[in-house]
Amino acid sequence: MKIIKKILISIMFVILLLFIILLLGKYLVPNWNDEWHDSANVKDFYGLPKNSLDVLTIGSSQVIKGFSAVEFYKNFGYSAYGLATSQQSILNSYAWIKESLKTQNEKIILLEAKMFFEGTPEPQNRKGFDNMHLSLNKIKAAYNDSKQREVVGIYDETKKNKENGIDTTEASNFTENFLGLVFPIIRYHSRFSEAASESKLPSKYTNYRGYSISGVMCGNQTYVNLDETISSKRDFYGENRKYFQDIIDFCKKKNIELIIFKNPDMDWDMERYNSVKEVADLNGIPYLDFNLKSLCDAIDFEYAADDQQLNHLNIYGAQKVTNYLGQYIKDNYDLGISDKRNDEKFSYMKDMQSAYENEEKNVKMANIYDISEYLDYLSYKSFTLLIAKNSGFDTLNANEREALSNLGLDTSKIEQNKNYAAIMESGNMIYEVRIKR
């Protein structure tokens, strides 16, 4: 009995120690809360109501900036989520697909193709692993990731540096990488003071179910479509060809429809397209590449106006790609997906849609230079408007006067040779004054 008692005490001690290690590791993990909101993408996914997703979109930052789940809800009634992290590896994407089915039963998975031909630096790799719950799925993925890094020679290119105060030192060997992914405390044990201050800093960016809004236009005119006369192929990075096939086989086994897509990308080329297309065709998987002229034309894509920077879409481009994907699903699949816009259980999506549309108006206003169109945007209920004008409104044209009237101003009462100021909130006049010069 004494031996059994000692064994039980030892087991309880190990369990308690493991719990403390996991708890501290969770506390020390950096809060990636910049415009890519990698931490929120994962944490918010775990907070979704169980079995509430129709569509799951997986991939790298191309998804964070290029797929809007709110557009799917607003225009098609689908419940969708972009479960993406910066430079998310294909291996990590595979792990997230398996992880998703623990709490969701999505009918369709959209997989963005960017990372088939790229490796993931360890700092970005941590963003995909750190907030994943510990499980056999995570352990296996961490093992395979560490093994792949050994095969491609990552450990021969050790880098020691910091970015934004966060240690981004590459792991020096298989064991260090593996244990660091499974138990984050090993990688972040010196971050106690940073973690304490980070916990008090709210993000400046809103996570719209995995989407980050930007209205910035790159203005770059050099983008060209893929040269479809090229027939050569490019090798997949590391074991990504294998993991691509694993994803395909897993989705077929789980009766999930898989669609591969590629957002417009100036770094993409026909060799990569041909390699992805070959695998997709062999497995009967749709592949929608928006770098092809036919699809660029179909969505009326203009790189200078629809791209943000570094080959990431802004809200204009994201809406075009997202709505094409939604219409493609609607036209080609009969999965019995109900319209969530009429479902009371998804009423919380209406609130998110409202917040999303408010921010959409804000970011798009920065690109409006016509005064009449700008004033029309100001009539949107979320704005507080301050108007100041010297010498009256006699210089305004008819369209501008009409736009001001639509805001609720009676321009006929604004006299010449008088200064004027007003404050309107949500369409209501709360302050107005006229002063003679």
Model description:
The structure is a single chain. With 437 residues, this protein is α/β, with parallel strands linked by helices. The protein folds into two domains: 2-358, 3-Layer(aba) Sandwich (Rossmann fold); 371-436, no CATH class. 45% of the residues lie in helices and 13% in strands. It contains 18 helices and twelve strands. The strands form four sheets. Strands 2-1-3-6-7 form a five-stranded parallel beta sheet, with helices on both faces. Helix 4 crosses helix 15 (315-332) and helix 4 (69-76) crosses helix 16. The longest helix is centred in the N-terminal third of the chain and has 27 residues, at 2-28. The protein is globular. The chain starts with a helix and ends with a strand. The mean pLDDT is 86.
Query: What is the CATH superfamily label of the largest domain?
Result: SGNH hydrolase
Q: If strands are numbered along the chain, what order do they take across the biggest sheet?
A: 2-1-3-6-7
Total helical segments: 18
Topology order in helix (H) and strand (E) letters: HHEHHEHEHHEEHHHHEHEHHEEHHHEHEE
CATH fold title of the largest domain: Rossmann fold
Strand content: 5-15%
Indicate the percent of residues in helices. 40-55%
What count of domains describes the coordinates? 2
Biggest pleated-sheet summary? 5 strands, parallel
Q: What is the CATH class of the largest domain?
A: Alpha Beta
Tell me the overall shape: globular
What's the overall average pLDDT, rounded?
86
Report the C-alpha radius of gyration, rounded: 26 Å
Just name the CATH architecture of the largest domain: 3-Layer(aba) Sandwich
- Give the number of DSSP strands: 12
Unreliable segments of 5+ consecutive residues? none
